[in-house]
Amino acid sequence: MALQTILERIRAAEALAGRAKGSVQLIAVSKVQPDARVRDVLEAGHRLFGENYVQEAQGKWPAFRAEFDAVQVHMIGPLQTNKAKLAVELFDAIHTLDRVSLAEKLAKLAQARGACPQVFVQVNTGAEPQKAGVLPESLDQFVAHCRKMDLNPGGLMCIPPEGEDAGPHFAMLAEMAARNGLTGLSMGMSGDFEAAIAAGATHVRVGSAIFGARAYV
Ligand SMILES: *Cc1c(COP(=O)(O)O)cnc(C)c1O
């Protein structure tokens, strides 16, 4: 199945970059995919998934979690502040912390719960006006502000501009993470995950290359 091919390509990219085997985690992005395809990937033994929509994840994952052990689901889509409470209950990680108001909300929820999903700060590396994410020049201050609130990001995430070479964006994200003492790097999708691994990705988010094209209705 496509999952095995992608896993093999990830292991090969790790080796080529001189990185430890298993240092890159594959997030199988299951948004908008039929349950039967998700089930196939679960039955093949994969346990880490990514979703873009809180409501869709809420409808899909409680049942799969009850049926399969050790499932992890990461939120990789834009998160509205009014869905943050539900999100911290549903997800093991949130890759899309992109603004101060959401950081404040997550910090408050973490304090009340005494626990918090792993958090990645999304960086708008291409400074695209329509794209979410903290601007590169504001990142250091943003991370410091999070830490002051006891919200400790584990890494950075980016979605490079479409139609551009992603390599420089991956390199920029890695540099910003190192500068801020962050070890997680969520970068790379179906078309460019090998380049992301070469640049130090710890989490690649691969959807269509595993599940096939998404059928939006
Ligand atoms: C949908 C999505 C992916 C997966 O995209 P593919 O091109 O299908 O691999 C990865 N990251 C984010 C943020 C996404 O929204």
TrEMBL record:
N6-(pyridoxal phosphate)lysine-modified residues are: 31
Can the keyword Signal be found in this entry's annotation?
no
Keywords for this protein:
Pyridoxal phosphate
Under InterPro entries, the record lists: Ala_racemase_N (IPR001608), PLP-binding_barrel (IPR029066), PyrdxlP_homeostasis (IPR011078)
SUPFAM superfamilies of this UniProt entry?
A: PLP-binding barrel (SSF51419)
List, for all copies, the residue spans of the domain called Alanine racemase N-terminal: 8-214
Q: Which family does it belong to?
A: Belongs to the pyridoxal phosphate-binding protein YggS/PROSC family.
Q: What does this protein do?
A: Pyridoxal 5'-phosphate (PLP)-binding protein, which is involved in PLP homeostasis.
Record-given protein name: Pyridoxal phosphate homeostasis protein
Give the species this sequence originates from.
Cypionkella sinensis
